Amino acid sequence: MTQVENHEFSKLKQDEVAIVMVPFPSQGHLNQLLQLSCLISSYHLPIYYVGLATHNHQARIRAKALNPSNIAKIHFHDLPNPELIASSNLEKVRDVSMLLRDPIASFIRDISSKVRRVVVVHDPMMSYNVQDVSSLPNAESYIFNCISVFSCYIMMCLFLKISGQHEEELLKKLYSFEGVTTDEAMDLSDSQHPYMDIRSGDIHNTSKVIESKYIDLMEQAEISLNKKQWAIGPILPTKLDYISNRENICLDWLNKQPPRSVLYVSFGTINSFSDRQIKELAMGLEQSKQRFILVLRDADRRDIFKGEARKVELPEGFEERVKEVGLVVREWAPQPEILAHLSTGGFMSHCDWNSCLESIIMGV
Ligand SMILES: *[C@@H]1O[C@H](CO)[C@@H](O)[C@H](O)[C@H]1NC(C)=O
């Protein structure tokens, strides 16, 4: 195969290590790999963030908590839209994460010929697409996990059917996974498993202080497979001085509230409540007489730049009645900054790993 001369690589040096990030195209995942990119880039390593143009664009415009001068150092490599995705099936996540193998392989091959070593850091759900790393002598890959080591470990026990006495007792105490994920998500995850073997190890956004027991268990389980485990978290979005200088309606509003008085209510971007559930929630907030910020974003569509967003209905006159004590936000809310704000006193959440960690770290 001939090497394509690519101006993107013009600044690379032969003795360098280049990092290639391969995110999974959903907001939480895009954002976290971008954040990790900024962190790694502060060690003066060249970083390539690889995805479809629309997802790279989404990652950049939503990265409001990251310092723009850090983002500017990252090379965004837009993959050409595979025909199938462009024409019909963008709805199906599974297609996106199974069709990028060739363009990703050729990008990694090109870059590997320019530098000493290539390190690919990817989402577990992109394992299929990065499998060709194994055919390159100077490349290796790591999985970056956005979830807790506890969850990783439990899933490993369930899916790979690892069972010692300890695991069995642990599993008995847990809720079943049934109904927690969709069939589509399970399919996607199953289809990635065979390709996870090529990785050299896992990077986790956690620390021994919080999860030492499960980090140790994970290490023991993976050591025979020669996979290294790295707990490098918690990786915070940005420096606090940058946070405090930013203008945002939530932060402006919080500035006017008494210390520790506001309940922050947000259920992430992936959960859609029914209108009835939202009305109940709103009525509860109103009757509680607490100060609150209520984030009402509907779940993301596959392409956030296309199609109509659903307008979530609140009880009639709600916003007017609560305007002294409550703020309803329909946009992207800067969660870490809100939690770090002195006026925030509580957090009502769907308790994903990020929200839990951010809440612990900010002492809310
Ligand atoms: C790591 O976890 C923290 C706390 O939940 C979160 O704010 C941050 O976005 C995560 N960073 C990455 C790179 O996953």
UniProtKB/TrEMBL annotation:
Source organism superkingdom: Eukaryota
Biological source species: Solanum tuberosum
Family label: Belongs to the UDP-glycosyltransferase family.
GO MF: UDP-glycosyltransferase activity
This protein's name: Glucosyltransferase
UniProt xrefs under PANTHER family: GLYCOSYLTRANSFERASE
Gene Ontology biological-process annotations: glycoside biosynthetic process
Pfam families xrefs: Glyco_transf_N
Glycosyltransferase N-terminal domain residues: 15-237
InterPro entries: Glyco_transf_N, UDP_glucos_trans
Keywords assigned by UniProt, alphabetized: Glycosyltransferase, Transferase
